[in-house]
């Protein structure tokens, strides 16, 4: 038996998200041949620190764990996973995957945010959809005309407030463009 011990300090205000992420990882670990168990402990000396200890049958199992962990910390993988979940209408799960991609530093954050807005539209939650679409534009999303035909936004386009919201979206896009131009 081999033990793997590591400690982590979740970003300020991200403790619950870290624990949620760790819980999602646990069932994936149990699928790896050679995995025995995993436990997490909060430090008494530093309450922001968490210690994780996992037990494995042998070192070959640890290699498989490292491969799984590499996926678990890859923002691109979570972005693609969110897209795949959205494509099969597992929308709540897709939103969580996009959130993880963003938390892990996905380099095109605005795409993940826009896709969250699309998932909320498919869930028929106009308020959240508009919120994330506008945030995506503020973060750099530029495919504004595509919103008029994006099938994922069909629901929000059917809402009475769409025209006003779309006008606001275009205004934000124009303001962002002007700011970018003034930078250089």
Number of strands: 3
Strands in their spatial order, largest beta sheet: 1-3-2
Number of structurally distinct domains: 2
Radius of gyration: 20 Å
Name the helicity range.
55-70%
Task: Give the gist of this structure.
The protein is mainly alpha-helical and 184 residues long. The protein is built from 8 helices and 3 strands, in the order E-H-E-E-H-H-H-H-H-H-H.
Task: Furnish the topology, listing elements before pairings.
Blueprint: E1 2-8, H1 15-30, E2 35-42, E3 50-56, H2 59-72, H3 75-87, H4 91-103, H5 109-122, H6 126-139, H7 154-157, H8 162-183
Antiparallel strand pairs: 1-3, 2-3
Helix pairs in contact: 3-4, 4-5, 5-6, 6-8
Structure commentary:
With 184 residues, the chain is mostly helical. A three-stranded antiparallel beta sheet has the order 1-3-2. The protein is 60% helix and 12% strand. A hairpin with a 7-residue loop joins strand 2 (35-42) and strand 3. Helix 3 (75-87) packs antiparallel against helix 4 (91-103) and helix 6 (126-139) runs parallel beside helix 8. The N and C termini lie far apart (58 Å).
């Amino acid at each position: 038996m081999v033990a793997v011990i590591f400690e982590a300090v979740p970003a300020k205000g991200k403790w619950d998200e870290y624990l949620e992420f760790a819980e999602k990882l646990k069932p994936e670990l149990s699928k790896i041949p050679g995995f025995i168990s995993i436990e997490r402990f909060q430090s008494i000396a530093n309450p922001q620190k968490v210690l994780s200890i996992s037990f494995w049958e042998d070192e070959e199992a640890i290699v498989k764990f490292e491969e799984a962990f590499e996926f678990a910390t890859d923002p691109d993988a979570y972005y693609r996973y969110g897209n795949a979940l959205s494509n099969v209408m597992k929308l709540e799960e897709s939103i969580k995957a996009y959130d993880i991609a963003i938390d892990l530093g996905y380099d095109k954050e605005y795409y993940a945010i826009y896709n969250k807005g699309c998932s909320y539209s498919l869930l028929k939650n106009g308020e959240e959809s508009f919120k994330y679409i506008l945030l995506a534009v503020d973060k750099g999303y530029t495919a504004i005309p595509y919103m008029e035909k994006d099938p994922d936004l069909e629901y929000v386009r059917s809402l009475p407030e769409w025209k006003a919201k779309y006008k606001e979206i275009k205004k934000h896009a124009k303001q962002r463009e002007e700011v970018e131009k003034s930078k250089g």
